[in-house]
Specification:
This protein is mostly beta strands. The protein is built from 2 helices and 27 strands. The chain is globular and about 50 Å long. It starts with a helix and ends with a strand.
Length: about 375
């Protein structure tokens, strides 16, 4: 009986891989330009760059730094030439100097106002306070003021809410985020984490909706990022730690993709495993996603799979950014996604890093954004013709 069950499990795994997700060598069609573009050079470090193109054509880049501050804050720079050059003096956009702020994410509203979502964290007397908040700008990012509190928790452990991602689901503003605060009351185990979202309706944020339950997936899914596909459906990428169809995953993370027709109803059990290192001790995490004009999707992630030793994020070693592109347009009806071989926009030696990266499709160019210690601490961009 046990041999029959083992055979059935093997068949299920093979079917899952064949009909849900594939990574095969293919050409991305991207033409990366030679030079890196420096957005910001930092003294103390700059991290987690995120870009938006405004209705007036201006590009904004938000990032985290503690330069000239006692705690980290989200700062914003502007570009009026498509990202080739950037303003000299960043503007502080997070409105809580008493907290360490991070994880910038922008969206522009129909009336032209800008919202910036970010996390605000403070550890004091063995307790950790975490919250997700928004700031608003009425002048295209020149000045910012407090807008709303999305969610907050106070815990005994360094657990809470992280990585907000603002997105319109139809005409309704939503925020997707990771939540491991429930570990404190025993609802989650230490290796589990939820992906949740809330809707902004009637001037307030709704109760949480679960996209991916850490209990049900037994995975620490995190860092959600969305894009809208050409057929109006939605794609969501996360980093994960467990999978029913990848038995060789041991210590590392990998990239998962989910598709929802309406953006409100998600089935985490049908997540597609779109990239994982062949060496199960290595990781692929911190994903980004964007939809190209022809309907293909570009996915970015960070990985230590190519460094001589195991990568270490605290020391900033061994991690680089990679980008892969689907070979065909992706919709809610797509049964099999083939991706190109991952490409490195920024070449990193083993003692350097390219971390907390993202990709953006702007004006028929793919823009890769990363933070690095390649030549000092900085935020870098690289463009590719699509």
């Amino acid at each position: 009986m046990s041999s029959i069950l083992s055979l059935l499990n093997s068949i299920i795994c093979i079917i899952s891989i064949l009909f849900s997700s594939v990574f095969l060598p293919a050409e991305s069609g991207l033409q990366w330009k030679k030079d890196n573009i420096t957005v910001y050079s930092s003294v103390n470090g700059a991290y987690y760059p995120r870009i938006i193109k405004l209705d007036n054509g201006t590009l904004l880049c938000g990032f985290t730094t503690s330069d000239n501050l006692s705690k980290t804050a989200v700062k914003v720079l502007a570009s009026n030439d498509g990202g080739n050059s950037w303003s000299d003096e960043p503007v502080i956009a997070s409105c809580n100097p008493e907290y360490n702020c991070d994880n910038a994410n922008f969206i522009q509203l129909e009336n032209g106002d800008l919202l910036l979502a970010y996390r605000a964290v403070l550890t004091h007397n063995d307790k950790t306070y975490t919250s997700l908040r928004t700031s608003v700008s009425h002048d295209n990012g020149k000045t910012w003021s407090a807008h709303s509190l999305i969610v907050e928790y106070t815990n005994q452990l360094f657990k809470g809410v992280w990585e907000p991602h603002l997105f319109f689901i139809g005409d309704t503003l939503a925020v997707f985020y990771a939540n491991d605060s429930l570990i404190n009351n025993g609802d989650l185990k230490d290796w589990q984490q939820n992906i949740e979202y809330r809707l902004f309706e009637n001037g307030a944020w709704s109760e949480k909706h679960i996209v991916s339950s850490g209990v049900e997936t037994n995975s620490r899914d995190g860092m959600p990022v969305l894009c809208r596909l050409l057929d109006g459906s939605y794609a969501l990428v996360v980093e994960g730690t467990k999978s029913t169809s990848l038995k060789n995953i041991k210590n590392g993370m990998f990239i998962k993709l989910m598709i929802s027709k309406d953006g409100l109803n998600w089935d985490a059990q049908k997540a597609i495993n779109i990239y994982y290192p062949e060496d199960s001790s290595r990781s692929a995490g911190a994903p980004g996603i964007t939809c190209l004009p022809d309907g293909r999707i570009a996915v970015s992630f960070q990985t230590d799979e190519d460094c001589a030793g195991v990568g270490s994020i605290p020391e900033g070693k061994g991690y680089t950014m990679k980008v892969m592109v689907s070979s065909r347009p992706v919709t809610s009806l797509t049964k099999r996604i083939v991706f190109s071989s991952p490409e490195e926009p920024f070449e990193m030696p083993d003692d350097k890093y390219a971390l907390w990266s993202a990709v953006f499709c702007i004006d028929n160019e793919l823009i890769a954004a990363t933070c690095t210690n390649l030549n000092g601490n900085s935020i870098l961009l690289k463009k590719a013709d699509i």
